[in-house]
Amino acid sequence: MMKYSYVINKDDYINAGKVSSQIKKILKELNVRPDILRRMAIACYEAEINMIIHSFGGEITLVIDNKAEFIFKDIGPGIKDITLAMKPGYSTANERARELGFGAGMGLVNIKKVSDEFNIESSTKGTILTLRFDLL
Amino acid sequence: MILRDILRVLNANHIYIDDQTILDRDFICVSVTDLMSDALAMVCSAGEHTFLLTGLVNAQSIRTAEMLDINTIIYVRDKVPQQDDLNVGIELKMNLFTTSLSMYEASGLLYESGLKTATR
Ligand SMILES: Nc1ncnc2c1ncn2[C@@H]1O[C@H](COP(=O)(O)OP(=O)(O)OP(=O)(O)O)[C@@H](O)[C@H]1O
Ligand SMILES: [Mg+2]
User: Fold this and answer.
1) How far is CA A17 from CA A22, A49, A85, A86, B38, in A?
2) What is the CATH number of the domain that holds B21?
């Protein structure tokens, strides 16, 4: 089993996407099948950006054995209405995030679409997004 | 359609070319958007035969392309990334071009040329 952890900081627009880029390189070196790798990269990037632009910061953990599991855990402020947040087009992204090309309200929809298992839990204490990918 | 011909149709200029052979590569799909999550909803499986047409000129356009295994980006309205953002593109071995056309004009010409949409 392999485990990787990365700290993500709130509003760290300069480094946005760097962790996903590193994770993508690791997965490539582990010879993850290209189509699975692509889906994992998309989900990881969307979730990393969400932590930067919507949360107070947190941590990304990736655990790989015969499958891959991502845990995106932040320290708040949480998502009030998850059903609403999952709706295509719903976004509370601020001006800065929109300038960077985010705020379409499609991130969670994309993540759900590309992952094999998707689970999201949220309270004012934070959001935990868990994703699983079959590796075969 | 090979990139060389696409660049001619769009009257596009080079910003940075990592790999000259890209000019002779065949491109099938194009992702046209300023919204990164729309680009990330890509359905075209062949990243190496897909390019991004966008007006979003910051580093996130480059990072988004990276996630999709796309290494060719054409910016509209003569936009060029600022040096810091350009450095990200160079590091990630991107091929970057710019056209004076608007997104609408460029899309129309690409559509007429038979390019398919990469996102749906
Ligand atoms: N980690 C998070 N913490 C708090 N709120 C979040 C978090 N992730 C998502 N949200 C909320 O859910 C909404 C929808 O998220 P989603 O990723 O689908 O869209 P977006 O980030 O607004 O835009 P896009 O991802 O298309 O650029 C966000 O606008 C935000 O209100
Ligand atoms: Mg998002």
Assistant:
1) 9, 7, 21, 22, 16
2) 3.40.1390.20
pTM: 0.97
Q: Are strands B29-32 and B13-16 parallel, antiparallel or unpaired?
A: unpaired
Residue A92 Ramachandran class (φ > 0 left, ψ -120 to 50 alpha, else beta) = alpha
* pLDDT in 10s for each residue of chain B, 120 residues: 999 999 999 999 999 999 999 999 999 999 999 999 999 998 877 889 999 999 999 999 999 999 999 999 999 999 999 999 999 999 999 999 999 999 999 999 999 999 999 987
| Structural domain boundaries, residue B84 | 3-117
Ligand 1 pocket, residues with Cβ under 6 angstroms: A 46, 50-51, 54-55, 74, 79, 85, 90-93, 102-109, 127; B 37
Compute chain B's Rg from CA coordinates.
Answer: 12
Total number of domains in chain B: 1
CB B56 within 8 A of CB B31: no
Report the amino acid identity of residue A8.
Answer: I
